Amino acid sequence: MDTLFFTLLGLGVVSSFIGTLAGGGGLITLPAMMLIGIPIQIGIATNKFSSGIAALTSVSYLLKNKHLSTKTIIMNVCIAFTGGISGALITSHITEKTMNIIALILLIFALIITFKNKQWISSVEGKAKDTTIASNAIPFFIAAYDGGFGPGSSTFGIIHYMNQNNTYMKAVQLTRVLIFGSCCGAFIVFYHTGFVQWHYAIAMAFGSAIGSQIGLIALPRVPLKLAKSLLITIIFLLIGQVVFKIT
């Protein structure tokens, strides 16, 4: 195994750990892969594969420890899977600048919601909001965004599920399920484009799986204030990255 393999493995561990707790793992992975000479298209495909594998290990962990019901997982995976495929297909018809503008608007909105969300001061799950078409549609659109573009999708997921009166911990768990579905759907599309380089993908997948497991194990021990600060920091960094790309 060469140096690049271990570099990508380490990159996967760090980005997946941070991404599990607050999202924004792509802030680390894509720029880093480009820095070491991996083309952007291959980087995106690699990221989808590794994120999907990491999320799969997360789903297995959640099932094993009975944190989420099988019904909840299946429902969210199905919604996200269709969203991921849709997003990956739609992206080919939208310019990167347009996607960045959309991302900027969503991130600003997410920042406002994060500051206003009262679940940050409670570790107790509130009364669940009634399931509506909108509450199911939002995960679909987050998954579509993740499948086709990605920056901040985990962050959006965490904020959405917290807005549904879930605790931070459960919101993270549900987001891992969402990301698994979206990455599976998107990867099918990217695989057919021929951009998958398995040497890169497997290295990143190993690292991402490890980072995701560490993140889930650490999750119950993360103070809410720290989690909120981390999430807000990630959102600001994502906004900065998107603004830089637009300008």
What does this structure look like?
The protein is mainly α and 247 residues long. It has one domain (3-246). Helix content is 79%, strand content 0%. The protein is built from ten helices and no strands. The chain has helices spanning 3-22, 26-35, 40-64, 70-91, 96-116, 133-148, 153-163, 168-193, 198-218, 224-246. It is found in: Cell membrane. It comes from Bacillus methanolicus (strain MGA3 / ATCC 53907). Belongs to the 4-toluene sulfonate uptake permease (TSUP) (TC 2.A.102) family. It holds the Pfam family TauE. The chain crosses the membrane at residues 73-92, 98-115, 174-192, 198-219, 226-244.
Question: What's the gist of this structure?
Answer:
By secondary structure, the protein is mainly alpha-helical.
Which labels suit this protein?
globular, mainly alpha, 247 residues
N/C terminus separation: 40 Å
Largest sheet: none
How many separate helices? Answer: 10
Structure classification: mainly alpha
H/E series: HHHHHHHHHH
Strand content: under 5%
Helix content: over 70%
Pfam family, one: TauE
Family: Belongs to the 4-toluene sulfonate uptake permease (TSUP) (TC 2.A.102) family.
Organism: Bacillus methanolicus (strain MGA3 / ATCC 53907)
Protein name: Probable membrane transporter protein
